[in-house]
Amino acid sequence: MNDLKQNLLQTAETVNQALERILPGETVHPERLHQAMRYSVFAGGKRLRPALCIAACEACGGTAAQAMDAACALELLHTYTLIHDDLPAMDDDTLRRGQPTCHIEFDEATAILAGDALLTLAFEVLAGVPHIGCQLALELAKASGSRGVIGGQAEDLAAEGQPADADLLEYIHRHKTAALIRTACVMGGLCAGANSQILESLAVYGENTGLAFQLIDDLLDESSTEAELGKNIGSDKEKDKMTWPAVHGVEASRERVHELTESACEAANNLPDGKTLNALASFMASRQF
Predict the structure, then answer these.
(1) Is 2-285 in CATH node 1.10.600.10?
(2) Cα 144 to chain center, whole Å?
(3) Residue 132 class from Cβ within 10 Å (0-12 exposed, 13-18 middle, 19+ buried)?
(4) What's the pLDDT tens digit per position in 151-176?
(5) Does the pLDDT at position 202 exceed 60?
């Protein structure tokens, strides 16, 4: 496990170096907008989605370099979702990755524009990938639009204060969280030139890992501190969010995490070399951050 953590740290550093090259500098006009973009991207984070993308590529015989543009595009888009999720009109959070959220540090209008710019930059990066840029962009667009992340966020907001609904909760988690993690794995496979059968195994792995990740998030919101998570905790209960512990209970949620992780590992075993993805699934399921 220590080797895996060290590998994640090294991957995060490599991704950060690539993001540094991609993002406009703080002194590039318009300065305040670019400062807000960089503030949110470099506020911390484990870079788990890029790490999954790179690990998926390597599991199919590719290299980290082949997956780097896709990994960066995923992080840019993910950061956009965080900025917008934190806005007063959405989840109204004031803390993200241990720092004031973008709209608190800057202002609401700048935060909206920073999110918009990061979303756009993600597709600009993918458009420059030789041969498979269009395919990668399509994969990310499907995962992040109204039938993906944005749709999940819309239903998440609409479900606040509503009676428990297991089917709706499943929809929210599959779209708001699992869709992007699933796509990170598939994009990694595409970067390595994986065939359709391998891509399907990566999709199953990502879907199950993503659902487990969200369940852990729900559990941690009830049991961790702001210092441990680097974001507001207890906000799910405060906003009467529809979460797995609220709908199914804590013990059932933990059991479901175990089931999903086992399914993810089974899918990883179908890959040419799924050892790292297998370890990542177990690591993410046991996380305390």
Answers:
(1) yes
(2) 11
(3) middle
(4) 999 999 999 999 999 999 999 999 99
(5) yes
